[in-house]
Records
---
Amino acid sequence: MSHKSPKDFFAPLAVGAPAPLREIPARPSRAIHFFDPSNPKMAAKVPAMVGTVDVLLGNLEDAVKADNKVAAREGLVKIASETDFGPTQLWTRINSLDSPWVLDDLITLVTEIGDKLDVVMVPKVQGPEDIHYVDRLLAQLEAKGGVQRPILIHAILETARGVANVEEIALASPRMQGISLGPADLAADRKMKTTRVGGGHPGYLVRQDPVDGDIHGNRTVFQQDLWHYTIAKMVDACAEAGIYPYYGPFGDITDVVAAEDQFRNAFLLGCVGTWSLHPKQIEIANRVFSPSVEDIKHARRVVKAMGDGTGAVMLDGKMEDDASLKQCLVLVDLAEELAAIDPKLKELYDAIEIED
Ligand code: GLV
Ligand code: MG
């Protein structure tokens, strides 16, 4: 095995590129709203969405027709140059590394709008070698374009090999910002027998035992979550690396109820956000990925009751200790980060009164 000094992980990969970050800032990213920059109608709506969503993402990959790849890239350069994004982050999803478009995507975007671009989402990541490739290219292009701060990398988990390598992917570079589940490509790559973009499937279930041996009798069925294993694995890999996990696309735009369920499962398991494919999904994501008033009320009550944070107390018949306090602090810290950019949430959280 060849060794690399720990110090060298934080040296730029090209002369003149900005130094890598030592920590990924916790910037709210509850909804990553996808738009197609080659679609003039969609592109025209982007400036008005600034401030209404945490992340706007110009998509160049799947869902953009091959004939429109150049128009999408150029459209994104135009939108980014003409728009002041204020508190909203600007991300892009580049074409996959085995496509003929990705090199021009990176060269054009980094040299022309590199200072506006926060994160580059890389699809179909297979292993750490894919991250290393983009890492070095970004450094070279940042140096060429005079970009002042490092552009971060977000990987989509959408190949079987990528899932097998998720820990190495998460740890592949100080640029790694986070990972999203890509349920549509992942299902195809694994040869799952579904035909949907995210969400559950009525055939994936367990059934209550027969009553009195009557196997054809009335037996409750419980639908299971197809994505539980992958999301849990992704959350652990991200937590280990100090980066952020996300749900991905939920394709049934009309089923806002099931979308909310999937997003909430992901939130409870540790994800910080999800993709939005339609403005309807932004509202759901903003609500689901913000701690509820009830949770913050309880969390603050535990923080107060636990004093210096050690020992145990009883609240409403339940034991609270150092570890339950730490869980509460996750929610309290998240609420503070979100309140800093979301005045409506701030008002809600500020109005909470704690009982003893
Ligand atoms: C997203 O890109 C997916 O394939 O689900
Ligand atoms: Mg995909």
Note: Residues 316 and 331 are 20 Å apart (CA to CA).
---
Amino acid sequence: MRTLIRGGTVVTAGGAVRSDVLVVGERIAAVADGLDLPAERVIDAAGRYVLPGGVDVHTHMGLESAGTVASDDFATGTAAAAWGGTTTIVDYAGHDHGEPLRQGLQRWMARAEGRACIDYGFHLMVREVDDRVLGEMDALVDEGVTSFKLFMAYPGVYMVDDAAIFRVLDRATGNGALTVLHAENGGLIDLLVARNLARGRTAPLWHGLSRPASLEGEATARAIALAEVAGAPVHIAHLSAAPALEAVHRARERGVAASAETCPQYLYLSLDDLDRPGFEGAKYVCSPPLRPRRHQHALWEGLRVGDLQVVATDHCPFNFHGQKELGRGSFARIPNGLPGVEERVTLLFQGVLRGRIGLERFVDLVATAPAKLFGLYPRKGTIAPGSDADIVVFDPGVERTLQAATHHMNVDYSCYEGMRVRGAPELVMQRGQVLVEGGGFKGRPGAGRFLPRSRPAAPSP
Ligand code: URP
Ligand code: ZN
């Protein structure tokens, strides 16, 4: 099958140029202006941007947490991603204490296989570190699971100590993996949580106030120091706060291979949302928490100048009714996580319209840089001959309102309810197959493929 996408402006991280794109089978065959070649299908993209499919490197489809399960599974969550212009996710697989990493990975593979509508890879969340686990990591890197997340938060559940983090970083200098950190000071946070609950401070706002920005800054600086001593690259997940950004900035200035991602929720939402009346603040409980509004400016600036390289979602939705409500009476029992996989591309595009980032930088943040950093480039993340034909025809002019009534994520609320936005994916294609077109979904659960990833490209300071 040959498809010609004609007359659009092709935007890559390197520039925006009026070009036609020829897709042959699953791949992009040619990108040039005035391509006059035979094709079974011609798509008119005049007045539209032609973007690489989005790459969201932080999702949690069907994650078990706080006695419940994230409401999007691989079928619903990846369909919603496609609606929003994302054609690749890298989800976080996990293992139980004492369970081999591989066994956990196989469980996640089984959840995704036959269900995912878009292509997917996996990181692994590692709960304990010993010689056996380190050996498993070496083998998994060879098989395309090339990044591992360690937690400095959630004592007793996920948290590992500094020595364990160092051992993984040290091992990564040999096996080539990228170590991802959830950087918050979990021990101190647990103490503050217990103290606030004992004082009767049970409302969702106290989730945020129990996890101060300075403790994210401290943990981020500590993670980077460990990576510096090990001589290994490090990636900071879901960075939410100015002190953490400052730690990344200082590290990069002195030549440390540190990278970081933020998420749309930290760019658009704030502590004020956690403080909504009644129990509504529970909709906004995630970790790290939403911050006072002033942090948003710092994060946008971090995106613009390059201290932040990636925007991912940390998509981990729980319904308000029946799930977030588990925490009525104690913010500590509210399942942590927000929906967002569908809105990421559009929300970042608002940053272009508001003059915060350029068009090419937008594409870099939502597609190219995450693909490079996590070993998927140039197969994913760009529009170039030989790359997978993962393409979004994006209409920059269309106006709409974000709302739960019309979104496709399997969750009963939208964090952005009522927000007016401009721009929407008009056609979304993966490997030459149309997934979304003309307001209809044409994808299929099971069409998504597992992506073995290369060793990540070390982040350049
Ligand atoms: O609140 C969040 N982020 N939930 C998902 C799990 C994690 O910590 O990434
Ligand atoms: Zn996460």
Note: The chain is about 30% helix and 25% strand.
